[in-house]
Every structure is written in C-alpha cells, then in structure tokens.
Write a structure and sequence with these properties.
Strand content of chain B: 15-25%
Strand content of chain A: under 5%
CATH class of the largest domain in chain B: Alpha Beta
CATH architecture of one domain in chain A: Orthogonal Bundle
Largest interface: A-B, 69 and 71 residues
CATH topology of the largest domain in chain B: D-Maltodextrin-Binding Protein, domain 2
Largest sheet of chain B: 8 strands, mixed
CATH class of one domain in chain A: Mainly Alpha
Number of domains of chain B: 2
Largest sheet of chain A: none
Structural class of chain A: mainly alpha
Structural class of chain B: alpha/beta
Distance between the termini of chain A: 43 Å
Number of strands of chain A: 0
Oligomer: heterodimer
Radius of gyration of chain B: 22 Å
Number of strands of chain B: 8
Number of helices of chain B: 16
Amino acid sequence: MTIPDGFPLSAARLLRRHAGWLGIAPLAALLVIAFAVPVVSLLRLSFGEAGFTLEHFVRIATVPLYRSVLLTTLTISVLTTLLCVVMSYPVAYLMATVGPRMRAALIVVVLLPFWTSSLVRTTAWIVILQGNGILNRLLMGIGLTSEPVAFVYNLSGVLIGMTHVLMPFVVLPLYAALRGLDLSTVQAAEGLGARPATVFFRIVVPLTAPGAVAGATIVFMNALGFYITPALMGGPAQTMISQMIADNVGRQLDWGFAAALSTVLLGATLVLFVLFQRVFGLDRLFAGGGGTKSGEPFRLTSRGRTAGGLFGAVMGFAVAVFLIAPILVVFPMSLGSSPFLAFPPTDLSFKWYVSFFENSKWVGALVRSLEVAAVTVAGAVVLGTAAAIGLDRIGPRWRRVLETVFVLPMIAPVIILAVGLYYLFAPVGLVASIWGLAIGHTVLAAPYVFITVRAALKTFDPNLELAAIGLGAPWGTMARRILVPVILPGILAGAVFAFITSFDDVILALFLTNIRTRTLPKLMYEGVAHEIDPTIIAAAGLIILVTVLVLALDLVLTRKRS
Amino acid sequence: MKSRAFLAAVLAAALAVPTVARAADEMVFASWGGAYQDAIRKAWLEPFAKATGAKVDEDTGPETAKIKAMVETKSVSWDIVTAGGGGLMRGVAQGLFEPITADMVKQDDVIEGARNPYGVPSEIFSTLIGFSTKAFPAGGPQPKTFADFFDVKAFPGKRTLPDKPETVLEAALLADGVPAVEVYATLSTEAGMKRALDKIAALKPSVAVWWSSGAQPVQALGAGDVVMALGWNGRFQAGMDSNLPIAMSWAQQIPQVGYFMIPKGAPNKATAVKFLNFILKPEINAELSRHVAYGPATKGAWAHIDAARAERLPSTPERLKNALFLDIEWWAKNGAKATEAYTAMIKG
C-alpha cells in the first residue's frame, strides 16, 4: 500500500531495508578513517611503544595526583553541567515569552559568547573578576564588601568561565522544548489552582527534561575536555585531566603516558554515558520537545505573568547580563593603546584596529577561518543529517550502538586526534592544506548536527512520510516538502554548533596548518606564552560588530518585508 | 554566499599546495610568532636574506610534538626551529635534531653555560623577581633576593609563581640558603626535593596566582592583584616600557637559554648551517637585543651593545655573577617526577 506503482516489489523492499544504512554510511566512513584510525593508533601507545607494558596505567593508579585530577575533572564537569541547566531555564523561559524582536535579541546574547575566541573570553573575564577588577570595585563601591572577593584563579573562576561558554548548548534545545510545550496543559494546571512553583516542577520540568538532558549531555562531554579555561581562570586545585594530556603530548613528549590518561578518560566517560543511557533511556536522551504537537505552543497568555513568571523573567534577564558582560568589556578594552589590557582604558586609540587591517596576516587568517568553517558546516550538516535520518530506519540494537559511537569524537581529547591526523595526512599531502583541517573539524562537528537533528526527528510523525509516499510522492519530494521543514530547526542549531566548533579550534589548526593556511585562533595563540597581542581584542571586537550588524540588518529587513 | 565561500576555499586549497621545486638557497624558519618572531625577523632573518641572497620563509608553532610528527612521517618542512632548553633536551632524547658539530658551526664565542651539541643559543632570558613599585616604592625597602621573595613578614602581600616547577625549585633552595653550586645536587636527593617543596608550600597562603602564561604575572602586578612575581625579565621590561608600576631585582636570577635547532631531515640543511654561522658573528649577534630585552649568549656581542641597552639585559658579565643557569640536563632527567611532585604540592 505504501509502494508506488511500477516499482519492483523486491527492490523496493531491499531499498527500504537498507535505506537507513545508506544514510549512516558516509558519517560512519568518515569517523572510521579520520577518527578511529588516527585516535586508536595513538591510544595503543598507552600499552607501550616497543613491547606490551602496563607501566603507564600502574603510574596513574599508584600516584595519587592522577586520581585526584580525574576526580577534579569529573566534579568540575558535573558542577558546570548543573549550573548550565539551572541557569538556562530562566533564559529559555524569557525567550519563549517575549515578542519576536526581543527574542531575536536574546538569541544574539546567548550566541555571542560562542563567537569570541576562548582567549578573548577568558581575558575579558579576568579583567572583570580579578582582585581589583570591575566587579570587586563595584561591590566595594556600594559597600557590599570591604575586601576584594577572590572570584578568579579558583573554582568559581573555572565554573564562571566554563558555564558562560557552554550554556548555549542547553539554552537552545531547552528553548525548543519549551516551545513544544502545549500551552493548554499549563493553563489547565493554573485553572486547577496550581501555584507557579508546582506548575514549574510538575509540568514544565518533566515535559522539557528531554531537551535539557540533550543539552546537558553535550555540556558534560565538552566540559571533560576543557583545558584553556581552567588553566587561565582556575588555580592549581582545578587542574583538569586534559591539561595533563596536552602537557604530556606537547611538552613532555611522553605520548605513551598521554595515551594512557586519554584511555582512562575515555573509558570513564563511556561507562558514565552507558550508565546514563540505562537510567534515562536512549529515547529520552535524544528526544526533542515533549508532549504532542497538537496544542498551541507555550507562550505568555493575555493574563500576563504570574508572580513565579515574573521571578523567572527577572532571573532570565540576570543570566542574559551574565552572558553578555565579557562581550561588553571587550569593546572599551580594544580602544586603549597600552599593550597591557586595562579597563577602563587609560586613553582612547584605534591602534589595534589599525594593526588588524594594516597587517595582512590578520585579515588573511580571518578569511581562512571562514573558509574552513564553511566547508566544515557543509560537511557536518550533510553527514550528520543523513546519519540521523538513517538511524531511524535500522534495527534498534544497531541504533543503540551507533548512537554511542557517533558522539565519541566529542569526548576524545582533541590533541590526540590532532597528532593522529598529522600522521594520517602527512603522507597524502593534506597537512598545511585547509582541506585536512576541514576534515578534522567535520569529525568534531558532525556529532553536534547528528544530536540536534535526532532530537528534531523525535517530533516528526513517521505517518506523514508514509502518507506522502503512499500518495505517490517520490522520497525526494517527501523529504523536501515534509521531512526537512520539520527538522530544519535541528539542522540550523547543529550548523551553528558546527560553525563554532571550527571557528574556535586552536589545537587541530596548530598541527594541520602552516603560516599560509593558519586560522584566526591559531594566529591569536601565537606568542601567547609571552604576551597577549591586543590586536586579538580588536579582532574579537570586529567579529562581534559584524555579527550584530548582520543580525540587526536582518531584523530591519524582516520588518520591511512584513 | 556559501557557494562563494566554498569556491574561495577550493581556490585557496589549490594555492596552498607547496611548491616542489626549490631554488638553490632557501630556508624555512619556524618560531613562536608574535613580538619574539618580529624581533628575530628584523635582527637576523632580513639581514641574512640581504647578505646572502637566500630566500627566507617563515612558519609558526614549532611544537616539539609537531617536529616529532614531521620527522617520523618524513615530511619535515622546517630548516630552523626554536625552543627553550626543555624543548631542546626532549627533542634530543627522541632523536629529532641534527647534531651541530664544530665543523658546521664554530661556537667558541658562546658562553660556557649555554653550549649544546644540538643547538645554537639564540638568546638568554631570566627568571627573577618583579615587584610593584606602588607596594614597595623607591626609597623604602624593596625586595632584592629570592629570600626576600619568600619572606612575607618583611615584604607582605600576595605573590604569583609559575605553575610549573622549573626555576621555582631552584629559587626556593637559594632562598633557603643553599649555595648556588649545590642547588642541583641538593635537588637530586629526596630530602633536598622535600626541602624545596616545603619552602614553597609555606608560601602558598600568600600565592594569589599560579601563572601559566608569561603575560599573566605582568598583568597581575599591573592590576595590583599581587605585589611580587617570579617571572621573565622580558615581560617585566615590556610592562615597565608601558609605564606599569613595576621594577625588577637583578640581585639574583635564574637565566635560561633559547636555542635554534635543525630538525632531522630538514630540506635545506646547508642554508640553515650558513644562517647559524651568520647569527653568531658578534655584530649580528648583538642585533637581537635591540628589538627585545633578551641578552646575547656570546661574549663578542657585548662590544656592540651600549650601556643603555645593556641595562635592560640579563646576560651582562656583571649580572651573570649572581646567576644560577637552569640545568637543562637535570630537568631532562628529573622533569617528569619533579613536575608530578610540584603539581601535587600546589594542588593539595
């Protein structure tokens, strides 16, 4: 009944049975060649470079330092994840309950931290949080404290820095889930006399949990691999395992030990991930919005905000200020003339902007970054979407395995992948070309698209597909007219994540590019062991400015059209 | 829009394919970018190209790990790479560098503590005390020795120290009264290592920042977050040149040597050797300190440096009298263990 006329029955059945694999194959092939091969070839060094040995693992087990670092890594990752989820709810609520223009502005605020390189972000945070920083001067000025509070170079510094940059991963899926919430459910509860807190904990949280959990998973896995933020904003007590892995790969040149640390990290993460799946169930992890799609989407009703709603809105606003704060200090800082960043700047000068445009290396690196990001987004979107669609059409056992396998690139230490890819690419001439780098970035970025599209697919009713094909629509037409419009938000969110993954990467660029193909982040990190060239602040200022202008222009044009 | 970017990407990739045919005299120099590489370019690369007609290309990011990957995959594209003593020794241990014999480069003029069979010293920089002149103004007591750095009674206030043990263990033992010549022998004993770690542990309550990037101590001093820092002279000097309220004490210092090496399998070894000989000529060797506050590692260079410039440099014969050179061989042998113990101490 669902087979179009004139289509040979057996071939159609064959295609139906294997269509899923057709979608999965390209991403699977990429991950085998450009992820599994290079990473495994390095990880096996953990069992010795010449003969088999367990000495590296014995060292990890017997020296207390490594256990404590692993524990610190897990603690910081868990705390960051919790903070991200708790702080994302008010923002997502605010986004869902304001007008479209305000919502657009909020989306910009949420995404802007992504757009600035991690080096610029952490520098801005330190200027705000340090002993004589903006926040402490403010607190002492209004008499809340007489002594400067230590916000940075300790646990709070790390949590602030990491939560700030990882929060968008929760806000976006949570916002989608909130929009998928049926307004009548909330109204019914309110009509029956439920207080705001009851509505939130008994209705909103359970129905949006899948979105929050999807975001939280991304945050947790990302957090495990952080090392630039903890190195710059934390103290020694916040040393994370990726710092030690990078130190052993790059500085100590002890690849066997670095591989052993990576193996332990990967193993621990995988165990946690599988346990997590057991407890929460796979479908919930990858589910997007909750509830059915028949009702009116969640928004503010004509009755206005309840007391609880007002509280949520105020908190949402506060979190938005937190997200935008470092961006706001970047501009004034970029206008000083001293090579040592100060806020407020002692004088006004466009020196660093002039330096950006005068020196072709900065403009060249920016263009290169955009090129690599464009290729990465294209590759990740095609491969990730195809795999996500394909996965629905294969048996549940394989589905479970592949869902885990496809997110592995998110948890493997990037420096291990970088070194592995160098060995893979050098013989075929792909080092120092933007293609090699783009392939590496696609490996890192495709899992994001895969996850966001999987989440979006949960809201797609497969009966619609059957109906369309039953009515004679070819698969391509069905996909274009029915499937893609439904999963488009997921694709777009994945594309944003893919862009950022590529645009902010330093480590792959360090190994896979040279002076002619270097990207902006690589250029920013050059010489950073010695000094911070304020041109990077100007570069960040320009990127933010362009982003805001493009979005503002889009808003103006949208209004004209309507 | 996207398709145009894609097209541009294709074009860029086509242009990025390295040229296979090389002219006779060519060389690729790879260092850490930023102001440091700018200084080397002006002092040495451009004059070398001018004097010999060689074409000098530059690259950045000579991570030891990347050199290792290049050497092992036989895709070495660099002829000269730069590193500190630690990077040099780790590379030597893995066989990544060409030996530099006396037949290739004559290093008679290089000062004793800086010679190495696999590298030509490019400069000397120092770890020493930098302090806030707001906290310790001229006229009053100012910190001078490492003992002063560890003395929170005489010089109260927060400190910043490197988050890696190199130079800190040495400074701790010197502060504790160990004579310079006995520092490494003492550190090699378990009791000596414990003595150094205990000395630093006692200072921990006064340490506000354990820095990981050379710019941090200057930033922290300038912002008033700390009053004293163990850091690099070149960075303190840059802060002073930008009118930050900072001064350094030359009374005691731990100099380190920067090196230029030839990676094994470098495509233009002959030109690289020519270049290494070029930078050791006294008048050329003196040029680098004109652009960055690092001292020459040769004796002859001083004849070409005036008193005003020498005032900024760590390796004047006078200042080297109070110096304990970082022993890179000791660190190559004991670095992993010492780092483990140091990290555990500051973390715990």
